[in-house]
Each structure stands twice: as C-alpha cells, then as structure tokens.
Design brief:
The protein is α/β, with parallel strands linked by helices. Helix content is about 30%, strand content about 20%. It has a five-stranded parallel beta sheet, with helices on one face. Strands 9-16-10-11-12 form a five-stranded parallel beta sheet, with helices on one face. The protein has a five-stranded antiparallel beta sheet with strand order 21-22-25-24-23. Helix 1 runs parallel beside helix 6 and helix 16 packs across helix 22.
Length: about 900
C-alpha cells in the first residue's frame, strides 16, 4: 500500500498513460481528494480533452456536439497536467519512466495505465474499406462519408453495420438519423446476445425492424466487396448471399490495448496477461510490478476485460484511494446496461441469463407489441438476481438498486407491460447502490440531501443539479436520474421542505411559474427566456416546453425565429412520423362533417400520392405514407380545396367528436354537430401541455362518448351539461360534471376559462385528468375557478382565449406562402432535390398499401408485385374482397 505524501517532500510523480474516460476519472478522483504532494501528468495520444465515449452516437449525428468530460478548468490546476498528442509506447521499468511516440520521456513514481482498447477488426478480404466506431475521428469520418455518398450517388445509401451489440446498434441508429438505410449484420442468432436472452433479443429485433432497420442474424460476413475505385458495393456472406452496401461499419467489439505489458520478442514479460488480452490486476487494481496500476478496458479482472463505464470509474477511484492511503478493493464487474435505441428501451442487469442454481425466471412476452420483460429471482421468488427489459424498461429504475435483495412485492408486480399498472413503490435501503456507474448508495444520497459534508456549513442539498454535482450520481449514463430525483423529493418532504418543481436542471422555475413569467414580461424568444431564467443550452425537456409556452401565448408561426429547433420531431415536420419514416396527413374535418366534394378531394389526393386512408376515432380521415418532401405538394392541394391542418402532430386540440344530433336523429335534443363545429373552429391550433380532445353528444345516449374526453358536452332539454377531465389511454378517466343546463354562450365561456386555466397551471405533458387529480380540491377547485371565479381571473382567462381566436392562422397555409419555410421539407439536407425512393410499400389484403417488412424489402428488387412509394399500386383483382 502506498501512503500519502507529506507536503514538505518533493511531490510524487504520477504518470497516466491514456486520456480516455478512465484516465479522466482517475485525474478527477485525485483532484477531489487533494493534489497536495502530488504531480499528475496525463498523456493522451488524441488531440482532444478527455471525452465521453458512451455518447459517441451524439457526435455521429452532430459533428459540433461537445462531449468533453467534466470542467475543462480542472486541467488548470498546477499539479495536474494534460499533454495531448503523446502516445506512450514503452515502459522502462528499471528507470521508472515511459517513452512516447514523439520521442519524449516522462519519469514516474506511480504509473497508471489506462490505454483502453482498440476496435476489433475483421480478418476478411476487403476489410481495408470499412469504418470502425471507436473515436471522435471515426464517427466524424462516418458522418462525412454518408453525406458525400448521398450526394454522389443521388439516392439514399445502404449503411451496413457489422455487429449487433451495443456499439453496433448505436452505430446503425446513427446512420439512420443521417438519412441512410440502416442494415445490421450479426453473427449471433439474435441482437445484443451478450446482454439479452433469445426471447428479449428476438423482441428487440422485431422492434428494430419495425423502425426500418434491416437485420441479418446468425451468419457471418466473409468478404467486403468493392469496385476498382475502392467504393464499397456489398458484403458477401458465408452462406453465399450478397447484401448491398455503400458504406460498411465494423462494431464487433474491442481488443484491450495491452501492448505496453507485452515483452519484446525473445524476452519474458513481468506482467500476467489474460487469455484474451488485458493485464491481470489484483483487487486493488495493481499489476505484478509494484508502482504500476491498470484501470479501465486494459485491466483484466477475473478473466474479463469489459468496456463499461461503471467498472472503469470504480477502478479509477480505487487507485486514487490507495494512493491516498486507503484500502478500497474492486468488487467485480457490474454488467448492467440500459439504453434507448431509436426510441426502443433496452435494459439488462445482474444474472440476466438465470445461471444461478435453481433460479426462477418470471417472464412476460408480447411478440405482437415487441415487449419482453423478465425478472430473475431465487427459487423462493423473493431475492432479485437480475432482469431483462425490451420495449418497456420502466421497472429497471426501481429494480436495479434492489439487486441481491428481497423484493418488497411479488415479482410479477414489476412486469408493468402485463397491464398491472406502475411498478410498486420502492423504499431503498441505505446501502443499496442507486448509481452503479459511480457507485453511489441511497444512503449517500440521503446524507447529502440532509447535509452535504463537502459544502460550507454542511448545508443541505435541495436541487437535483447540486445533488448530482456533490455525489456524481446521475452524471454518467443517466439511467438512475428518475430514482435520484424521487429520492431527493422524498427526503425533502420528510424534512418539511417544499419540493422543487423545477422544469429541468437548466430552469429552476416550474412550468407554471415559467409560463407566468413569459406572459408577464412578454418574452418572445428562447434566447431571451434562457438568459433570464435558465442556464446552459437547454435540453429535450425545456426546449419543447418553452416552444409550447410561446405558441400558447401567441399565434406566431411555430417554426419561425429559431423556434423550429426547439420542437419535437412531429412539430418540426408539421406531421406525424410513422414507423417506416413516412408521415401522415390529417386535414381538419370539424365535427366530422364533410361535403361530398371535399371527400372527393381527399380521395383524389390519396390516389395521386398512393396514400393509405383510414377514418380515425376522431371522425376525420388520416392519410399515411407521405414522404417528407411530398408534404408541401399534398398540403397545397388540400389548402387550395379549403382544408386546413388538423394538428394531429401537436400538443393542441385534436378533434371535437359529435353525433348527428337533433338535425337528423329522432332522439336528439340539441344540435350537437353545429356545437361541435363551433367549438373546434374556436379552439383549433390551441397549444397546451398535452393534446386535447372534445366530444359533443346530442342527447343522454352519449353516442359521441363525450365523457371520455378532456371536455365533454352532453345535450339536455334545457341546454348543455359540461364535463371536464376525461382521458382515454393506458389509465382512462371519466370526465366529471362541472356545470348543468348551460346556454351556448355560458358553455363556451366556461370552456374558455377551463382550457386557459389548464394551459397556465398544468405540468409539461400532463393530461387534464391527472392535472385535476393533483389540484388541491380537485373538481371542486376547478368549479370555484371556472364557474364561481373565486380567484378573480375569469375575465383575464377569457381575454387570453379571445386573443388566441382572433390571431389564429393555419400553419400549413402559412408554410406554403414562404419558400424559406419550405426548405425544411427535404429528405436529404446535402441533396435537396433528391427524393427518398428507398421507402417500400406492399399491397395489403384489403386493397390498400402498407409499409413493407424487412423480408419484403429484400424481395422488392426481384418481385414486381412489391411496390415503391412512387410506383402505382396494382389494380385490385375482381375476386378480391
């Protein structure tokens, strides 16, 4: 054990070979413990500050993103030096020095080797033409190649990723975001076979394929094919098939960079190496040579080298602890994994494959939905051993800290996809590890919340950002942040402290407070709002929330003045994206009423652009299968015919459903169609915290199902009954009666107040039912505000709604007027005139088209019955139904 150096002695020299995440964590750990008596020099061969390799997929799709780890100011410390462009090539053990490729020599008292690993290469012909996925330079090269090839070939390219593990799927997802067709080749029969069992792997495969990925499993590539100019043309498989490819990425794993520990030819190494590489370390992370330590992917412990964040961080902390006189030991590898891949949740932890003797596997599988959930326990179904989640990983957050402990409820209660509701509430023991990446326990979080020893005066921590900074919990992969936030709020509540309702870590105000501040100060831009109330560049929580608030308060075009970059995908395209990358077109059909002439327009447009048509539950017609560049063409024809946007893509009013009412029905007592149309035209375009739906029934028979809507109106002989707070979805709620027997004018006045009060006070993405439930007083409070005006704001709420009604403009009509706005609607940014013709449809059994499956796409080139997006559908056979 090495003791801490006295401040009166010459500083002891620590040299770190490598500049990746493990090296950064070690430097940070030394800095946190105090550098007095130490001089730390970090040698990295890369030109960058240490960066987050876990987030490489962000750099693949955005070359300007900053992945730098920690604060760059840390390297300004006089006892901490980072030297870039210095690759260590030799250890001189006798002289206690290292030499770099640049010819420089650095002496050390302690050497920490964190050289990481290299991307594994394919030993097959043509491998020189592939890309790998390991460094910033690697992903920048892939980004550049996709852009250049798309422009050069004038079409959507095929980007083949060889490897179906974590890195391979992240790589493939990145190529899809860059506009390429993602193809995955995996030697194992199912994806992520290291982390997932067969059932989970197959569920993941179905979900990935439904997103437009092409997956080839259970077969290995034998050659990369290229033309005389070196341009890749395909991948020859071991079974003789050729998979077309324009670009190939290899992500089949990593190989430890242990060359520093290997002896020269004819010499005997002083270090023990693992059978698959990596220098063998003891449980204190020391090697066989005193004064030389190894951490991260180059370190072999228990016969394994793993490229995961949590063990690398733990090793770095252990070495820092040992150098300061501690006795920390490495407990072994934590292989827990959680990621979101193209919108698909995947998580695996513990004994996921149930290798423990007599282990039980409690499984819920729904192949049709692509959902797989498995919990592994001891044979008495009490102690949690592991789990796998695909498609719905919500239980992971609660279960992961309970690994090795007795579950507080029956295992089946955590299989949320089976329809049992949310996972049971979990009160974590103090020694349960909440953040596995940084080895932070629930007890440490509780202690920090109640009084952080690192802060002046041992002050309590009451903000999530401060809690993350003090404990490091939630600062790596981020999967523990929901549980971290919940634990923070629980402890604050126990202490009698009002829980923060901060919108996110960048904005301390709640959504309601931010809404009021923007309204009172009349702020109109994201930059103004962040300068006054926020920090940093914002995130995927505060950006769309601010865009929504701005749209709620004024009717300016939602994509102008920089607001387009704040919006979610559907809002940016003014259309709903479907699973195959096409979009749906939904014109407004107020109250479900439409003339034969307008029906003819929809039919003509659907036939012209080969769109699938479906009458929705909201009594309008949805047209599916439009490419991004087709949207303006389609909408021009619809707008010219008198249609406007139905805003099916927005957090706004969707539809007002109605029965035929007293005009035609012999039971009707009020004109429900006229009222539904009046309401839809009044509230169209109204942006809100979540989508809004309304229903109007002409009598008590309730054919329009008004009580299942956010606002429901049901006719009586004396007027209208108004119901509020109804929702469908996974947790349906019946609307509650707010007022009875209202005349038309009073009904509309109350709805104005209700909607505007909801818009001002609800949390982001909170439906009206949940909002009412959380209001102090519930429906009685709503009645007091809306009907009785106890807050004295009724006139203000009505004025705000009147402003919306007076300034409403149709978004698609506005888009078509401005050529600059139309520039958004291009499939390929680098080839603006190129259409996306790779999308493939097939005729369904009912005479319409649908997206092709992966197998059908593979046959599309050979079988003319399969149809592309721009090819007319075959005529229906006279015998078809």
């Amino acid at each position: 054990m090495t003791g801490q150096t006295s401040s009166t002695e010459t500083p002891r020299r620590i040299v770190v070979a490598g500049g990746g995440p493990a090296a950064h964590r070690f430097a940070d750990a030394m800095h946190a413990r105090g550098l007095e008596g130490w001089q730390v020099t970090v040698l990295t061969e890369e030109a960058h500050l240490p960066y987050d390799r876990v987030a490489l997929s962000k750099a693949l799709t955005d070359s300007d993103v900053d992945l730098t780890l920690g604060a760059a100011a840390m390297w300004d410390h006089e006892a901490l030096t980072l030297k870039t462009g210095e690759r260590v090539v030799k250890i001189d053990i006798a002289a206690k020095a290292v030499e770099t490729a640049a010819g420089n020599r650095f002496e050390y008292d302690e050497l920490v080797v964190a050289t990481g690993s290299d991307a594994a290469r394919l030993p097959i012909p043509g491998a020189e033409h592939v890309h790998v996925y390991r460094t910033l330079e690697d992903v920048w090269a892939i980004n550049k190649s996709i852009a250049e090839l798309t422009g050069k070939l004038g079409r959507k390219i095929n980007a083949v990723t060889i490897g179906g593990g974590l890195l391979g799927l992240e790589s493939a997802a990145g190529t899809e975001q860059l506009g390429a067709t993602p193809v995955v080749i995996n030697g194992a029969p199912w994806l992520m076979n290291t982390q997932l069992d067969e059932g989970a792997g197959q569920a993941l495969g179905r979900l990935i394929e439904s997103k437009g990925f092409e997956v080839h499993g259970g077969v290995f590539p034998s050659e990369i094919l290229a033309d005389d100019d070196g341009q890749v043309t395909g991948v020859l498989m071991a079974d003789g098939r050729t998979i077309p490819a324009d670009l190939v990425i290899v992500a089949i794993g990593v190989k430890p960079r242990d060359e520093l520990f290997r002896a020269a030819e004819g010499e005997e190494s002083l270090f023990d190496l693992g059978p698959r590489g990596g220098v063998v370390i003891n449980d204190d992370c020391s090697t066989q040579v005193p004064g030389i330590w190894a951490i991260g992917e180059v370190a072999n412990f228990g016969g394994m080298c793993l490229g995961l964040v949590a063990p690398a961080n733990t090793m770095a902390e252990i070495v820092a602890d040992r150098l300061h006189g501690g006795e920390a030991t490495f407990p072994g590898f934590d292989t827990a994994t959680k990621l979101k891949l193209s919108g698909v949740d995947v998580a695996s932890f513990g004994d996921a494959f149930a290798k423990t003797d007599h282990a039980l596997e409690i499984v819920y599988a729904d192949p049709a939905r692509g959902v797989y959930q498995k919990i592994v326990t001891t044979d008495d179904a009490k102690t949690l051993l592991g789990g796998i989640f695909v498609g719905d990983a919500t239980p992971y957050t609660s279960l992961r800290p309970l690994l090795g402990r007795e579950l507080p409820a029956e295992p089946g209660a955590y299989l949320t996809a089976a329809g049992g509701g949310d996972a049971p509430e979990t009160d974590l023991p103090d020694d349960a590890i909440l953040c596995s990446c940084n080895n932070v326990s629930a007890g440490t979080i509780r202690d920090t919340v109640n009084g952080c020893g690192a802060c002046d005066g041992n002050a309590p921590v009451q903000e999530l950002g401060e809690l993350k900074g003090c404990t490091r919990a939630g600062t790596s992969c981020g999967s523990c942040v929901p549980m971290l936030k919940k634990l923070l709020e629980t402890e604050l509540t126990k202490s009698g402290v009002e829980v923060s309702k901060a919108l996110c870590e960048h904005i301390e105000l709640s959504r309601q407070e931010l809404f009021d501040a923007i309204r009172v100060l009349e702020l109109t831009s994201f930059e103004e709002i962040m300068a006054k109330y926020g920090t940093g560049a914002g995130c995927d929580i505060c950006k769309p929330t601010i865009a929504n608030i701005l749209a709620s308060q004024n009717s300016a075009y939602v994509l102008d003045a920089g607001r387009g970059t704040l919006q979610d995908t559907n809002d940016r395209a003014l259309a709903n994206m479907q699973k195959d990358g096409t979009y749906s077109v939904v014109p407004r059909i107020a109250g479900g009423e439409i003339t034969p002439k307008k029906l003819g327009v929809i039919a003509a447009v659907a036939e012209k652009y080969n769109l699938y048509t479906k009458i929705t539950g909201g009594q309008r017609i949805d047209m599916f299968g439009a490419r991004l560049e087709q949207l303006p063409e389609i909408w021009k024809e619809l707008v010219d015919a008198g249609f406007e946007s139905g805003q099916a893509y927005g957090k706004s009013l969707r539809t007002v459903k109605s029965c035929v009412g007293s005009t035609w029905c012999r039971f009707g007592v009020q004109d429900s169609v006229a009222m539904a149309i009046q309401l839809e035209l009044r509230y169209r375009g109204l942006r809100s915290p979540h989508k809004l739906k309304m229903g109007v029934s002409g009598c008590a028979r309730e054919c329009a199902e008004a009580r299942g809507k956010d606002v429901g109106v049901i006719a009586t002989a004396d007027g209208w009954n108004l119901y509020v707070g109804g929702n469908g979805g996974a947790t349906p709620a019946h609307a509650q009666l707010l007022a009875k027997d209202l005349d038309d004018e009073t009904l509309i006045r109350y709805i104005d107040r209700y909607f505007m009060y909801y818009i001002r006070t609800a949390d982001r993405l909170q439906r009206t039912a949940r909002w009412q439930e959380e209001l102090d007083g519930g429906i009685k409070h709503v009645e007091d505000v809306v009907v009785n005006d106890t807050l004295g704001i009724a006139e203000e709420l009505e004025a705000a709604m009147a402003k919306h009604v007076d300034t409403y403009e149709d978004e698609w009509a506005d888009t078509l007027k401005d050529p600059e706005r139309l520039r958004r609607f291009r499939s390929f940014v680098n080839a603006p005139d190129q259409k996306d013709d790779s999308i493939t449809f097939v005729p369904d059994e009912r005479g319409q088209m649908r997206p092709a499956t992966a197998e059908e796409k593979a046959r599309a080139k050979e079988e003319p019955v399969l149809i592309g997006a721009s090819i007319p559908m075959r005529p229906r056979d006279e015998n078809e139904v």
